[in-house]
Amino acid sequence: MQIDGRPYRTIFPDPDGVSVQVIDQTRLPFAFELQRLASLDGAARAIRTMVVRGAPLIGVTAAYGLAFAMREDASNAGLDHAVAALAATRPTAINLRWALDRVAGNLRQVQAPERFARAFAEAGRIAEEDVASCRAIGNHGVGLIAEIAQRTGRTVNVLTHCNAGWLATVDWGTALAPIYVAHEAGLPVHVIVDETRPRNQGAALTAFELNGHGVPHTVVADNAGGHLMQHGQVDLCIVGSDRTTASGDVCNKIGTYLKALAAHDNGIPFYVALPFSTIDWTLRDGVAEIPIEERDAREVTHLTGRLADGGFATVEVVSPGSPVANPAFDVTPGRLVTGLITERGIARADTEGLLGLYPERRQAA
User: Fold this and answer.
1) Which of 99, 129, 159 is the last residue of a domain?
2) pTM above the 0.90 mark?
3) At which positions is substrate bound (predicted)?
4) Which residues contribute to the annotated binding site?
5) Low-confidence ranges of the chain (pLDDT < 70)
6) What's the rounded Cα separation, in Å, for the pair 335 and 343?
7) Catalytic choice (130, 171, 194, 242)
8) Parent domain of 30
């Protein structure tokens, strides 16, 4: 997508052929900086500290991290160590484990001297597949926006939660892909952007990329969504997913479940956009089975922002000494989801709906 008129991907190979460049998302929206990753430790740190984030992008970064590990120690023991180290960085997003299993599976029968080149190439293929999947999600989802625009004859207001745009993937995004396709097709679309506390991925990241691409949008406080729905100011909700069960339950950034409840109460369609790599076919009950990452309490107790003089400051916003909990995700049951927008089309959020798009999984199911 575009930054100051120049196209960027969130991760791309460095000209040296042995490393990658990533957009440092901890510096956004006030500074645009690239960071070079060239080692297992560097890739793991980037995932853990959210230099890169978003389920699909985490998976691609982990794939490259596994390649870097093969430059350091290409033995079977080194491979096992690298898989374990990368898998431990973020427990909720299934794309990470999926990418590690895919790359590692390609390396098991390869001689050690060939493992780096094989892994680096496989990571590149995963990245290209992610771009194609996200573009397909956009093409399948844009019809939802077009139908509302045609029926109402006015701008379509789409509410989204957290960041599921191109910054969460390699390019295009998941939840924002239909919006970008609609915008480029000239459809009148306006995005309502939840700030998404505690890390403010909506206010900082979704707003940043919509700004860069020229898409009309408005940032709102997290708790404003229900009010806007009650007053007819939301036509459609589209969010992303970090893990979706075989039964259609969806795990996404904390607060998504509340938006789905509000949408259900107000009769507003609630869609979830995701690529195939986000589906965990081994799970049925999202609430009981999906591991929910508990992040540092400091994300809740402190805020960092830009001062009037251009400097930056971190301030405490919670009563000192108060205990703090910081679950990073919640689960929305499939019964509250209108449909799942995938690279193969739109499915009902249940087992039969998903198997209709992925019939090759029927025997395993």
Assistant:
1) 129
2) yes
3) 53-55, 90, 201, 252-253
4) 53-55, 90, 201, 252-253
5) 364-365
6) 21
7) 242
8) 2-129
